[in-house]
Amino acid sequence: MGEISGVRRRFVRAAMDAPFLEREEERELAVRWREKRDEAALHRLTSAHMRLVISLATRFRHYGLPMADLVQEGHVGLLEAAARFEPERDVRFSTYATWWIRASIQDYILRNWSIVRGGTSSAQKALFFNLRRLRARLTRGGEERIADEVHGKIAEAIGVSRKDVALMDARLSAPDTSLNAPMQDADSSGSTERVEFLVDTSPLPDEKVSEVIDNERRVRWLQQALEVLNERELRILRARRLDDEQVTLEFLGDRLGISKERVRQIENRALEKLKRALIDRHPHATGAFV
């Protein structure tokens, strides 16, 4: 363990001792890497900016993840910045690389801070990384403010809903708890697991299968009963009751050359014929179509 700490200290010392680059030297190294894939130029460019990686990684140390991992992810972001940097633009590499380093570290934190994945949208990321700071600022100086008011101001500042703020606040306020963690049973001296208290309200497998079979049977009965209708009754009933896009009585009347009242009469007669056919053929299952 002491040997690992020594390696880390030497790494940090080497990063801090790396010489700063002047603007022209920085630009030359970036050009050599982009155009010639000069590994030595890339090494000098990134080595000179490792202190920036360490500085940014330090800002995220309070999330409880290993500092070495944060620095490593920051280095990945630094390499990504070097691959995308355009030397001809009048921007210092450190300014450009800062965004990529921070983004890489934040993505790592979101992936590993909790076993439960949070939102990955830009608004959710902003909420995750700014919630503590904004909450501390709004309650600064010992001022007591109700949670709903604080959540409302944070939601307005970041551009998310109050519900999202409350949910994220709850997640950041408590660690993950395993569903297999024991809970003391009030009725006995033993303990049970949290998972045993979860209730699944979805239908049981046999109920799902039974529902599928019943639906298929009803469809088959309905198709057989439709045979008692004549062509016009079937056309009106399909258009008014069975098709996904149902039409009005007036529309059907115009298409068939009759009044909408006549269409309504034919529809009602077709429904009565259909009902009688179903009852006659399946008297024991009349409730299936109620």
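^ that was protein a. below is b, sequence first then the tokens
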Amino acid sequence: MGINGTSAATWFTTEVSHSELLDVLHRATDAVVAALATHDHWGLSGVRDGQYFSDLAADEAASTVLIGAGLAVLSEESGVTGASEMVAVLDPLDGSTNASRGLPWYATSICVVADGAAVASVVHDHVSGVRWEAVAGGGARMDGVLLEARTEIPFDESLVVVNGLPPENPGWAQFRVYGAAALDLCAVADGRFDAFVDYDVDALGPWDYLGGMLICQEAGVSVSDAFGRPLVVLDHTARRTPVAGVGGGFQQLLDARVAAAAP
């Protein structure tokens, strides 16, 4: 059911509804900001491989708000909590290894999925304080300012942000590897990067990319799984290989990623 007791499909039909949902996502994100402001233990938790105490602190802060608002939560850190037609897919701290080492590229990402579609998302850069938001069909915003639709850059002039290690240069001008897919995708949406590609093998869960995916799509950026699988999934074990870009450059990058996986 929706936040006000209506069905998910009905709840997302008005501007007010979108505003209410975004308000919940912003409050959850603000709770993470507050929790990390007083957090002083950035080491590994020892609960599972690659998990930090900061992940757990961020997860508790965001999940408390989201569940309290009537959303179910699919979190990287705590799995599935609650039962609702609307599911907040949560990466409490994307780039937590960066955060643990003082590298300035880590974020909180939340994307609400209803009726099999991404309907609203918020991504917050914890270093710069910049925040992106999007609602399906309503555009994407950075710090409240509507993002203009991305225009195509020739592939051989593109600066591409990459997850994993590319086996070779498929024709782009330059690439960077920063280690937080949510921020990587938002940087494509706002024009700092021209495209994104994942060269790891089934490494990214839906919490890694869904928030940034919707922001990209609402800014005119195409986003697909390299192998044709649906990106909107609510399975904690699911992994995907997202590629994002604009126009012919997107297709060149998608083709190159597929070719890199060929035996």
